[in-house]
Amino acid sequence: MKNEKIMISSKDIDLNEALKDIDEHITALGLGKKDSLHLRLIAEEILGMMNAMTGDYKAMMWFERNVKEASVNLTARTGSMNIDMKEGLLSVSSSGKNASRKGFMSKIGDIIENGILNFENVMKLEQQYGMGYVGYGAVSEMSADFAMSWSLAQYRNTLSTAKNDDSEAEEAWDELEKSVVASLAKDVTVGVKKDTVEMKALMNLSD
Questions:
Q1: Are 43 and 51 in contact (CB under 8 A)?
Q2: Which tens digits make up the pLDDT trace of 60-100?
Q3: How confident is the model at residue 33 (pLDDT cuts 50, 70, 90)?
Q4: What is the C-alpha separation between 15 and 21, in angstroms, rounded?
Q5: Higher pLDDT, 111 or 191
Q6: What is the separation of C-alpha 58 from the centre of its chain, rounded to a whole number of angstroms?
Q7: What is the CA angle 181-185-191, rounded to 5?
Q8: Is the pLDDT of residue 136 over 90?
Q9: Residue closest to 65 by CA, chosen among 88, 42, 47, 98
Q10: What is the b/e burial string over 57-80, where b = at least 16 CB atoms within 10 angstroms of the residue's CB?
Q11: CB of 26 within 8 A of CB of 64?
Q12: What is the C-alpha to C-alpha distance for residues 178 and 104, in angstroms, rounded to an integer?
């Protein structure tokens, strides 16, 4: 089952109105109370992540379900993200870190922004600020459909292996365990090509 798409824009979004639409669309899926709540929490986290990103965007969000799984889906186009904006955010901090970017969903926002930029520009930021931008991209890969793709399942597997020997991986694993989305979603996939982002959060339904 797939329902109609909800239009979301960074310029004119009313969060209360958007969440009301989200609730109505989730209710239409006919899920149980627990599954509906979990899907709503994932959708709310994705919405918050998009609104925290640097550039403006226009997006469509919709929900799907089958017998065993449900998903939150998002297709967004971003209009104003560029290397100068990203570098400006980093340069205001003596540490080279965007202090507002904390938590797992913020890292996904960074992955999306870096994917909208190109690899050469991301490398420039890495060299200039010595940050972990390429580290996030270490679990990303080229695909036939996207210039960059990323998967929570792959990220989780990578960290589970690395966390015993790497303090940064251990910290990222702890962050992952505290994340609402990571705890509820079976997988989250992100694909970026030019100014278009496609995201899907897949969740197992209760028995």
A1: no
A2: 999 999 999 999 999 988 765 554 544 444 444 434 444 34
A3: very high
A4: 10
A5: 191
A6: 15
A7: 85
A8: no
A9: 42
A10: bbbebebebeeeebbbbbbbebee
A11: no
A12: 8
In this prediction, residue 121 has a pLDDT band, given cuts at 50, 70 and 90, of low
- Say which residue the tokens 């904390």 belong to: 102
Residue type, 25: H
Averaged pLDDT score across all residues of the chain: 75
List Cβ neighbours of 163 (8 Å cut-off, separation of 6 or more): 169, 170, 172, 173
Q: How many CB atoms lie within 10 A of CB 51?
A: 14
Which DSSP letter does residue 3 get? -
Cβ count near 33 (within 10 Å)? 8
Q: How far apart are CA 122 and CA 150, in angstroms?
A: 16
